[in-house]
Amino acid sequence: MVRLRVEFTTEPFDLDEPPPHAVAVREVVQDADLDAVDVGPFGNTAEGGAEQVLGAVDALLRKALENGATRVSLQVNVVEGQG
Fold first, then answer.
1. How many Å apart are CA 44 and CA 30, to the nearest integer?
2. Neighbour tally for 29: CB within 10 Å
3. Are the beta carbons of 34 and 54 closer than 8 angstroms?
4. What is the crossing angle of helices 50-66 and 20-31, to 10°?
5. pLDDT at residue 83 tops 70
6. CB neighbours of 21 closer than 8 A, spacing ≥ 6?
7. CB-hemisphere CA count at 13 Å for 75?
8. Counted domains in the chain
9. What pLDDT score was predicted for residue 57?
10. pTM for the full predicted model
């Protein structure tokens, strides 16, 4: 089984309180069927099966843009099951 790790951030940043786009994407990954979810002030990571991670990536991109993000940076890595 292919497992993926996604790491992502959304901008613009607000150091006083999380902006709506940050709250929305955090809810997406926390509600998705993913494990090893780590939500932080400057970046977020999650791992899971390929289909679950790719579905969450689609949803988080859409939610981030719908909620005012001007940039979404993400990286997806294969962590298990490659080759």
1. 10
2. 22
3. no
4. 160
5. no
6. 10, 63, 64, 65, 67, 68, 69
7. 6
8. 1
9. 97
10. 0.88
Q: Evaluate if residue 1 carries a pLDDT over 70.
A: yes
At 11, is the secondary structure helix, strand, or coil? strand
Give residue 27's domain range: 3-80
Tens digit of pLDDT for each residue in 9-61? 999 988 889 899 999 999 999 999 998 899 887 789 999 999 999 999 999 99
Residues 19, 36: Cα–Cα separation, whole Å? 23
Q: How many residues does the chain have?
A: 83
Q: Which two tokens stand for residue 37?
A: 């979810």
Residue 62 belongs to a domain with what CATH number? Answer: 3.30.70.930
